[in-house]
Every structure is written in C-alpha cells, then in structure tokens.
Design brief:
Elements: H1 2-26, H2 34-56, H3 62-84, H4 113-129
Helix pairs in contact: 1-2, 1-4, 2-3, 3-4
C-alpha cells in the first residue's frame, strides 16, 4: 500500500511541514532565521509539485523532487549541527536578525525546528524512493 500511495503520502508530509513552519512563524511568532528561510525555499514548492503529480499520477516529477529534498536535508543537517555543536556556531551564515543557533523549541533535548525539517525532507525522500512504478 505504501508504494501505491507514496506520492500522496509525500505530498501530505510536505503539506504538514509547510503548515508547521507557517504555524511557528505566524501563530507562535517565531521569527525564522536565514537558514530557516532556505529550508522553506526547498519545502514549499514540494507542496505544489507533489500535489499536482499525485493528482495526475505523474511520477516523472520524482527525480526533480528528490533534488529539492536532498538540498533541503543538507541545509537542515547543517542548521541542526549549528544548533547542537558549539564549535559549528563559528560557521554561522546568519549575519543579521535571528541567530541560526537559536532554539525556539527543544523537545526531549534534541527535537528542534531544523530537526523537524530534516525529518520531513528525509521522509519525503524515502517515500519518493519507495514509489511504485517508473521514476
């Protein structure tokens, strides 16, 4: 069942991740840092691309969506490491505004917003890799 509906599930993960980021910024008033914006740049289009592809049963989008998820995962990993490893904070690309090392949430001592983004990108990548049919 996962393989048959994996494109829909990947779209659903993208919708939830996008909704979560908008919830944190618009309702919780957490100002996104520069790295958060880059992660959004790679997550938000997935809502539209995967939604249209799922609706049309068009699996040709998968290689392109995977590229977006890999780049998004890379940014999320860097951002998470910057939050959790003090030595990484010296590499910060956030030059103004909210510091990238800030942690609005820290559930269970390891779940932060970049961690949630990383899990979203990784789950989408896994679902796209598990998709039934030619990609």
């Amino acid at each position: 069942m996962i393989k048959e509906y994996s494109l829909y599930f990947a779209w659903l993960v993208a919708v939830i991740a996008t909704g979560g980021s908008l919830y944190f910024s618009e309702f919780m008033y957490y100002a996104p840092c520069e790295l958060c914006w880059y992660q959004r740049i790679f997550m938000y289009p997935l809502v539209f691309l995967l939604g249209i592809a799922a609706y049309k049963q068009d699996r040709a989008i998968i290689p392109y969506a995977k590229v977006l998820t890999v780049i998004g995962m890379s940014i999320s990993i860097f951002h998470y490491l910057e939050q959790k490893i003090p030595a990484m904070q010296k590499l910060s690309i956030c030059s103004s505004g909210v510091p990238c090392s800030g942690q609005y949430i820290n559930w269970f001592g390891f779940i932060t917003i970049p961690f949630l983004a990383l899990m979203g990108f990784a789950l989408i990548f896994w679902l796209l890799s598990a998709t039934k049919g030619k990609s």
